[in-house]
Design brief:
This protein is α+β, with helices and mostly antiparallel strands. The protein has helices at 4-32, 52-61, 83-96, 113-122; strands at 36-42, 68-71, 76-80, 101-105.
Length: 128
Amino acid sequence: MALQRPFLRRLFIGLMTMAIFSVMFIAWATLQNRESTLAIRPAMQNVSVPDGFSVWHHLDANGIQFKSITPKNDTLLITFESSDQSAAAKAVLDRTLPRGYIIAALDDDNGQPSAWLALLRNTTHRFG
């Protein structure tokens, strides 16, 4: 019986260490995927959404890569790999698109960890 206790203790500590490292790796991998989305909306009723090809042309001419351009409910959504690309694209589009458009970053409400953290930070907690 005395020989089994140190073995079980080492086995338990090894399994707990692996579990902790697995959770840390998954959290790190999840946080590394930081997609960013820009939304282009008309500022007034009589202005139409810009066409995706012209937006693609402006971004491509300035060397900005994007994942997708999707029209949705009078809005043009542009998805980027990172927030840096999104910020650069916003600067380019602010400069190149005619006035009459609102270009803004979309909130990430699709279950990303940053959205969960923001939700936890912004809600009041009541205990007791």
